[in-house]
Structure formats: C-alpha cells, structure tokens
Amino acid sequence: MRRRYLVKDLRAGCPCATCREKRNAPPVAANPLQLLPSGPRPDEMQIRGMSPMGNYAYSIEFNDGHDTGIYPLELLRELGTPVPAA
Predict the structure, then answer these.
(1) Residue 5 — very low, low, confident or very high, per pLDDT cuts 50/70/90?
(2) pLDDT in the model for residue 36
(3) Structurally, how many domains does the chain consist of?
(4) CA distances (Å), 49 to each of 24, 37, 61, in order?
(5) What pLDDT digit, counting tens, does each position of 68-86 carry?
(6) In a domain? residue 35
(7) What is the pLDDT of residue 32?
(8) For all residues of the chain together, what is the average pLDDT?
(9) Burial (CB count <10 Å: 0-12, 13-18, 19+), residue 59
C-alpha cells in the first residue's frame, strides 16, 4: 500500500534521542528575551536526501540540517496516510 507524507510530520516525528527528549520534556516557561528560532518554518521544511539503512529503515536529511534520525519502516507506516488505489 502506498502512503503520503508531509515533510513537517516526518521532521516532527524524528525518532532520534535528542528529538525524543525535546518532545518528552516538560514545557518551559516563556522567556521574553528569547530569540526567535532560526531556520525554516515547519511549512518550509524540505527533505534534502534519504538513504536506506539496511532493510529496515531510512535516514532522512532535512533542510534545517537535522540528519540523525533513523526511521524504521514501522514508524514510517505510522507517520504516513494511506493513498487509495487508483
């Protein structure tokens, strides 16, 4: 079955340890002196490259420079939405 992916969903679902820690961390109080984040907005996110990791996963490089997540096929199935057969 084919699946459709939004790049922002793939980036938000990155399984690397750093991203998991950020997702699971308690919310941080707002800091009025905090700088605005740099880099692409979620709607500007793009994939620069994908590489198979054996027969079980893909490594994805995003245009924000992040490339440490290894996406197992099971996770990719969860993150994608089914595309009906034509």
Answers:
(1) very high
(2) 67
(3) 1
(4) 27, 23, 5
(5) 999 999 999 999 999 998 7
(6) no
(7) 74
(8) 90
(9) middle
Q: How far apart are CA 48 and CA 62, in angstroms?
A: 5
Q: Is-contact 45 7, C-beta < 8 A?
A: yes
| End-to-end Cα, the chain, rounded Å | 11
Residue numbers of the domain that contains 73: 1-18+46-86
- Tell me, what CATH number does 55's domain have? 3.30.2020.30
Tokens representing 40 are 């692409």
pTM of full prediction above 0.85: no
What is the DSSP code string of the chain? --EE--HHHHHHT--SHHHHHHHHSPPPPP-TTPPPPPS--GGG--EEEEEEETTTEEEEEETTS----EEEHHHHHHHSEE----
